[in-house]
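Predict the 3D structure for this chain.
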Amino acid sequence: MIHCKPKSSTYFALGLIVVTLVGGLIYTLNHFATQRTFGLLIYLFSTVLLTLVILLLLVKMMAAYKFISAGKGIIITQLPLRNQTKKYLLNQVLVWDEEQIIANKREFKQLTIVFDDKSSFSISNHEHINYDDFVKYIQKSLSKKKAPLKKKP
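Done. Predicted structure below.
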């Protein structure tokens, strides 16, 4: 069985960013409550912006927290925050595709699998461990179900 789970280093880094942003929000609100040296619009703008960024990061972290396992002709998807686990046979996969993008001299890969119940599952090489092993298994087992190449204009 090949198990793809989120990288703890990614979540640690994102967690540090969220903690820093929460600290900045607390500092801004404390500064407003005690000193008020800036205009009201600056406090409103900064607190709204910090709150939105914090919420977006938390939603991104929660949405990306998923596990996928494959082996012995079965694919198991788990979304712990939804308390949802689904098992699929390999013949229940409609199509799969791997996108590769090079940005800042680093390669970003994302694998998307679509199942016959119209649900899909995506994992990436920067956020999940054992990504390459999982892609090799999918390429070997489901080579005929790979999405056709997209033509560039």
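The chain has a mean pLDDT of 93.
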